[in-house]
């Protein structure tokens, strides 16, 4: 796109809203894990595995589907993935048992990759002088969807008739858990958005593939983080989860000092 061309504000806002709405599908399960365990008669550890399946499905969707944006028409690919995502959500709604629900969660993860096709698509459509601004708006929509989805799902769960199993102590724990998640998410997600913006500054002809590798690594790590956090919670509660987070932060810091600063990015444009 030429520098003199523009991308309409309505289109940019639409992209931002769609990315937020779709990515929210990945996080609906997390605040209601206890309720799912009660309904299906399964343990909390199994529900934790279901959350991990969703993230793994998303990771493999990023690896296998998002790169197709460099081959096929991105607009139609986005539409197709949104249709599949809706079907996956309907399957989760209908699921009569934990087995079918597990399949649905995997499909939700795999089919919710449209935002990661939209992001490089937005960068491709945006003129050079507006590319950073456009990507920032779209990524903000993604971040908003991630943050609000957990609160929205938790609120729905709290007002349903079968939600009366909560005890006062559990309610207090939930409040602090939500506060902790929101605060940690603000830090980690803003960091992720910054990193993703850097990735999008690479060769535009490979933007979908670059984004795929970055987001695959991101959500693969998130999948194992879910597994370790579930284990730590069962052993030591909130302190155990914080301990696991500290260990991963130390590993990341050590990795930074060992590898050093990244090489200068290729800022070549079309």
From TrEMBL:
Membrane topology, record value: Multi-pass membrane protein
Keyword Metal-binding (UniProt): no
Pfam families: MFS_1 (PF07690)
Highest taxon of source: Bacteria
Domain Major facilitator superfamily (MFS) profile: 11-270
Single GO MF descriptor: transmembrane transporter activity
A GO cellular component annotation in the UniProt record: plasma membrane
UniProt entry tagged with the keyword Ribosomal protein: no
SUPFAM superfamilies: MFS general substrate transporter
Key words of the record: Membrane, Transmembrane, Transmembrane helix, Transport
PANTHER family: MAJOR FACILITATOR SUPERFAMILY (MFS) PROFILE DOMAIN-CONTAINING PROTEIN, TRANSPORTER SCO4007-RELATED
Full protein name: Major facilitator superfamily permease
């Amino acid at each position: 796109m030429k520098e003199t061309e523009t991308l309409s504000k309505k289109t940019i806002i639409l992209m931002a809203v769609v990315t937020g709405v779709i990515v929210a599908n990945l996080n609906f399960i997390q605040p209601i894990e206890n309720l799912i365990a009660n309904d299906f008669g399964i343990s909390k550890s199994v529900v934790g595995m279901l959350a991990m399946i969703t993230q793994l499905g998303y990771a493999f969707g990023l690896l296998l589907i998002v790169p197709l944006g460099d081959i096929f028409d991105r607009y139609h690919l986005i539409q197709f993935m949104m249709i599949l995502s809706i079907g996956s959500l309907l399957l989760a709604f209908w699921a009569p048992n934990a087995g079918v629900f597990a399949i649905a969660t995997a499909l939700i993860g795999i089919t919710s990759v449209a935002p990661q096709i939209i992001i490089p698509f937005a960068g491709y459509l945006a003129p050079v002088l507006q590319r950073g601004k456009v990507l920032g708006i779209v990524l903000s929509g993604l971040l908003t969807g991630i943050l609000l989805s957990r609160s929205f799902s938790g609120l729905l769960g709290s007002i349903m008739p079968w939600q009366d199993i909560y005890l006062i102590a559990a309610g207090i724990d939930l409040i602090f858990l939500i506060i902790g998640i929101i605060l940690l998410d603000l830090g980690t997600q803003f960091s992720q958005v910054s990193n993703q913006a850097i990735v999008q500054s690479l060769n535009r002809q490979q933007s979908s593939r670059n984004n795929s590798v970055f987001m695959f690594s991101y959500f693969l790590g998130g999948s194992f983080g879910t597994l370790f956090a579930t284990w730590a919670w069962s052993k030591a509660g909130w302190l155990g989860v914080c301990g696991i987070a500290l260990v991963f932060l130390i590993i990341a810091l050590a990795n930074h000092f060992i590898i050093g600063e990244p090489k200068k990015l290729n800022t070549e444009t079309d």
